[in-house]
Amino acid sequence: MYSSVAGTNDLNDLLTLCYKILGTFVQRSINDNVSLTSEEYQCLFTYIESDLLNVHRQSSAFLLLRSIMRHSVTIISNDKSLRTQLDNLLRSRIIFMIIQSPYDHIRTACRDLFHIYLFSYEHTKTKLKSYFDFFLLQLDYEDYNGRLSVLIFLNNLFNDLTKQRLNDYAAYFFLPLSCHYYNETNNECKKYFQLNLRLLLEKIDEQHRNDIFKNIVFIWINDKIEHRCLALQLFILFIEIEHEQFDQYLSDVFNFIERELNNIKHNDDNDNDNDEQQKFNDQYIYHLINVLVYVIKYCPNSLEILQLRSVWLKLLKLIDEKCLLHPHIWVRFLSAQFFGLLFERNKPEDIVQHMKKYLPKEDISSNSTATIENGSSCKRLKKSTQSNLDHEPLFIHYIIIFDSSISPLIKIQRLCCCSCSQLKPSDLTEEFCLQVIKNLIYLSKILILSNSNCFDLVVKRCCRLTTYESTKYPNEITRRSSILKWMAALVLDLSSYLTSYLKPFLTVIEREIERDETTINLPLKTLAQDVFDVFKRHCDIHSITSIYADIAKQRRTKRLERKQKLAVLAINQPEIIYRKKRLKQTKRLGLGKKRRMKAIENAKKNRRKKPINKISEDMDDF
């Protein structure tokens, strides 16, 4: 009675109070030996169904329905008419509101109700499968909120289903989830797809997991490129779950990755279709290398397996030659990360000790120009020590064996130069620069400890990189900061080996310390001062101060000579000075005009977007 009165007069507070009282009554009915009759339950279901159609009264209806479903399981299960009415209510109203309701709290309440319905009431296999079919079909629902609601429901479902039931439905759930995971565009939904797939694979037993991998995932690597890309992303999930048990599949996986990396081709055409294809190819290469990164992280013993050593060496060569300097920044980053994980397994000192066993004496002290003279000795070395190298660290095996016409130290020098080249583009992330510098520090230590002149070229490249940034991109500090950190790291550990390199190092440091302060360069100046303090603590203070003073004096002399030349030129050829000033003025005015025009365009865009943002914020409040 009160429900109908509240519904007609829109007295929602009265309706909510009535439902709360009824909900409390249902909860206490079992303990107080008081129960509602079948007709009273049917009446309540009728009121609940009518209130579910009204957006303003749905929350009140959920309170009562949750109490009935939780505390009257036995009564409803034993009464066919009540069970039928509950089934119709859940299947005709609640299940659709999980996906279609525009309000998050309504979708959450509906998910909870249907979860209670699935786990508290008995269902036949046919009915249960029909519910699962419905939710899997909604994975491509047009609104991402509906898809997200389905994914959250499936996550709760996987958490509470028994292991035996999940084993029975493992492939049934895995296939649609993995396919929709690849096609998903929303990041939040994609994250939940990944969580659900990982949870499903973790909960099923090893036998069913192996069946899924062999019969579904592994078949895709011989299919079209989209399926191969999906298979690579799923490989990572299996590696994270199985760890060392994944070693049994590594031979086939590595052969597949080697085949794909060999087919890498970069297209330099500017056609839009080619750009889209190249973007997809870059993404595909990223996934290929990402699998190898995860293998090193979660299956480190695979680096020591003799049967995989030859494939590892080929993969190292492909990443070294094709991916370290790839045009796409994320491919370069993953390649640097791959080598960084490889370097972490051995200290530079250990690498030098292992390397000395296989290098001729004249090769250790050779300079950077000796690249082909020792080719025959390297080839003889390869034949005589192959069995011993199989038990050495993978990086040692790689630099000793591959491209035997080049000295191993030259190969390390080339890797150092690749690291310098990776720092050359603009807009590099801090994480990427940090990884590159870690690799550069490691490789530099190997060259320094080997007492090789190959390190000279590395120093020149790094110093040239700082000059390049300070002249071409003075408002950027990424490269200079990275090189300063590299210098500090080397001096901290190997200061006694760096006496001959103090002048080029201090030239870079002095230039940044003496530079005019700006808001952009202030952190760089502070870093340069800190690095200089490190030099003073770990090197001979007298030689450091004298070299620094000489560099500062030379810089001041050059600056004075330059000013004098300009003064003489202004007297002798004033038209040249006037032309230069005019060009600077024109350039400054042009840049100022561009900035003003850009600011006006941005202001117009913001004015257009303002009402749209307001609406979206209002929608978020719901």
Plain-language structure description:
The protein has helices at 2-9, 12-29, 38-52, 58-71, 73-78, 80-100, 104-120, 125-137, 144-160, 163-168, 170-183, 187-203, 206-217, 225-242, 250-262, 272-298, 306-323, 329-343, 348-356, 361-364, 375-384, 386-389, 394-401, 408-422, 430-449, 454-472, 478-494, 502-513, 522-538, 541-572, 574-621. It has 622 residues and is mainly α. It has a domain at 582-622. Helix 3 (38-52) runs antiparallel to helix 4 (58-71), helix 11 (170-183) packs antiparallel against helix 12 (187-203) and helix 15 (250-262) runs parallel beside helix 17. The protein is elongated, with a radius of gyration of 35 Å. The model is unreliable at 1-9, 365-384 and 610-622 (pLDDT under 50).
Distance between the termini: 31 Å
Number of strands: 0
Largest sheet: none
What best-fitting shape do the alpha-carbon axes yield?
elongated
